[in-house]
Recover the amino acids of this structure.
């Protein structure tokens, strides 16, 4: 028997309380019981998103929420500014282009933070831009983009909506949807919400509803108005993912009990311990110091070490699943997730497995330096 540890930035571990709720016999969705759980889940999501705006819930992965933002806010030929510094920014560009939008492409290296002044310039130089699209927490690179600063810029443009992919941000980093003027914010269940994959949520501001009124792109399953009208009747337009919604009710209750501020502070500490632990082993962090998120820590594979072997040995020999690099960074970086249901000993365990793996691969470092550095963060030394 080997005990398993899931240390990826999605899917993430699911607490026993949530798992057990999902194991209960299925209930019908057109019942008062389901409606009560559904509405509590929606209210809980409002708390987590820090919003009074509409929150809509889909039976889909996160990409469904991304696509919904495009088809509900725009028309073919509209111009949008897409900021991209990783795989998921690339995806927003691909979805935008698939629907015939004209993309002003603000492309950065994966190791860079998107610069809000570039967005200000792009908006000045391209009158009539209908949307600005940004990934808050880039899971492929660990970079955190400053959506607060971007929100302050886009607020000055009444016909331009700000769309934020916070799929690995929500529940891990600060995301003040209303205060920062974020019109559409999205997340997915298999991330900070501590659920299995299968649900995605979006917030929709009054400005985004105006964009919806103008939008002529075709939509059906993801037509936001269908979801809004049904929520008013405490139900869903289509068969919901019943078990996941029941689990969501419990998961958001757990976040409320911890208190969102404490949840975010916990993530920040786990991320710091991971970073300090890796640096104590002589490893180099991938994301720049000015923009490191708390959902995932990507680390450069040291010279002379097989990056894919690190991930493989940790999983097969020690039962610790971390993520490799994506696209151009496959084999060149590895990523430790600490998003959602994670505690201090998950980090210690992962660093210990990493040390044992690196030693096996012939990398030289001071043994136990990583876990010692992480312990120091947890002990406040
Ligand atoms: C930042 C970000 N955006 C979008 C997605 C896509 O979500 P999904 O794989 O659930 O469709 C992910 C998933 O890893 C993500 O991390």
């Amino acid at each position: 028997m080997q005990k398993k540890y899931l240390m990826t930035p999605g899917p993430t571990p699911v607490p026993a309380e949530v798992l057990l709720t999902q194991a209960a016999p299925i209930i019908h969705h057109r019942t008062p019981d389901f409606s009560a759980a559904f509405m509590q889940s929606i209210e809980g999501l409002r708390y987590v998103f820090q919003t009074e705006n509409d929150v809509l819930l889909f039976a889909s992965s996160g990409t469904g929420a991304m696509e919904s933002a495009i088809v509900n806010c725009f028309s073919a030929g509209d111009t949008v500014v897409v900021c991209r510094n990783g795989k998921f920014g690339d995806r927003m560009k691909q979805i935008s282009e698939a629907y015939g939008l004209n993309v002003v492409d603000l492309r950065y290296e994966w190791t860079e933070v998107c610069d809000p002044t570039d967005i200000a310039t792009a908006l000045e130089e391209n009158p009539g831009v209908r949307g600005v699209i940004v990934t808050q927490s880039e899971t492929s690179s660990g970079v955190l983009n400053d959506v607060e600063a971007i929100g302050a810029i886009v607020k000055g443009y009444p016909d331009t909506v700000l769309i934020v992919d916070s799929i690995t941000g929500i529940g891990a980093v600060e995301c003040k949807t209303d205060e920062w003027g974020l019109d559409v914010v999205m997340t997915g269940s298999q991330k900070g919400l501590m659920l299995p994959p299968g649900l995605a949520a979006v917030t929709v501001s009054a400005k985004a509803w105006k964009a919806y009124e103008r939008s002529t792109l075709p939509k059906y399953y993801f037509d936001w108005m269908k979801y809004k009208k049904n929520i008013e009747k405490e139900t869903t337009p289509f068969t919901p993912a019943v078990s996941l919604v029941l689990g969501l009710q419990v998961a958001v209750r757990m976040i409320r009990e911890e208190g969102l501020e404490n949840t975010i502070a916990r993530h920040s500490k786990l991320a710091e311990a991971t970073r300090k632990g890796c640096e104590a082993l002589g490893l180099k962090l991938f994301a720049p110091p000015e923009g490191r998120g708390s959902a995932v820590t990507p680390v450069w594979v040291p010279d002379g070490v097989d990056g894919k072997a690190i991930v493989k040995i940790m999983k097969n020999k020690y039962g610790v699943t971390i993520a490799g690099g994506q696209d151009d960074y496959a084999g060149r970086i590895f990523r430790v997730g600490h998003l959602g249901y994670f505690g201090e000993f998950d980090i210690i365990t992962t660093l210990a497995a990493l040390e044992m793996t690196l030693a096996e691969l012939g990398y030289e470092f001071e043994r136990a330096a990583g876990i010692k550095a992480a312990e120091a963060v947890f002990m406040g030394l």
